[in-house]
Predict the 3D structure of the following.
Amino acid sequence: LRFDEKVRVVVFKSEVKGVFCAGADLKERAKMDDAEVGHFVKRLRNLMDEIAALPVPTIAAIDGYALGGGLELALACDLRVAASSAKMGLIETTRGLLPGAGGTQRLPRCVGIGLAKELIFTGRQIDGQQAASMGLVNHTVPQNNEGDAAYQRALTLAKEILPQAPFAVKMGKLAINRGMEV
């Protein structure tokens, strides 16, 4: 995707109804030794950083659960659209873990330090409406019968981006991202 000039916007969605991304398989992780866990977390962090660094806008269509690494995936995207019934949270502390794929950096940038600390410390899950009120998602929509309301809204948003000058959109993303780091 990084090098395909025809790609103008990337929308991340799930093919599993009711789930955007439920995060890492903790049963699989429990079987890993410390070295394997370190390698696993590093690979996840690198993946999220690669998604965040894509030169085109990325949109997460959250039509269901986005927990742990699933919310970290959504946070790696530029824009987030959620169904009002979606459930989101960095729930790692409820499992004796720490968000390891960028959530501790991206969530505070998105919602502010105090609110990010509260959500991470408590492991609280919030719905799409709550996420919109705190600025975690750009848009929230009522879920439809097909279970893809957020995806449909994400497509509408992508179609608003498509007619804009590709170079200007890419440079706008780069300028915003670099500006957030200084």
Notes: Residues 10-143+163-175 form a domain with the 2-enoyl-CoA Hydratase; Chain A, domain 1 fold (CATH 3.90.226.10). Strands lie at 10-12, 19-21, 58-62, 65-67, 79-83, 87-89, 126-127, 139-141. Helices lie at 26-30, 34-52, 69-76, 103-111, 113-122, 128-133, 149-161, 166-179.
